[in-house]
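anyone seen this seq b4? input:
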Amino acid sequence: MRSSSAVMRISIGWSKTRRNDALIGTFPSDGDINFVTQFARPLPQQVMAEVLGFPDTDIPQLAAWDEAQVMPFVYGEGHLNRLTDKQLAAQFAQLEGFKEYVQEIVSCKRRTPAEDMISFLTQVKYSALDRKLSDLEINGIAYAMVLGGLETTQYALDQQAQLIC
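predicted toks r here
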């Protein structure tokens, strides 16, 4: 019997290949493409949603939450990337929405686990403290995975494409 981590690695590999092929299949046979909007951005969004156990239909909202996470680095002013009070309020409202969304997913996955990361996190025992992870801890992991998985991958793909061109 395979461990759940081995199954997840196999599933992620298959997911990336399937999603790569689907996105590339949308490219025109001749002409230019916008690599970021047509590949580098949607690929990590789709894979991360699947890995975490979020429905594909929620990807546009996940993209908005991802943008809220990096808002200071995109729209912030000065060397400290400061947001205006209005921008900060908008960012906090978006991130509160993400927290509530993940909390709902965690509650659902605790009741009915599936083959995804959130389900795994709801079932795993944190051996250092001899307990399962709390909902807040799972929420923090999901937050970090979305931030690291989307933005980092998007920019890495974009940079690699620029090096090739």
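The two ends are 45 Å apart (CA to CA). The chain is about 70% helix and 0% strand. kinda curious what u guys think
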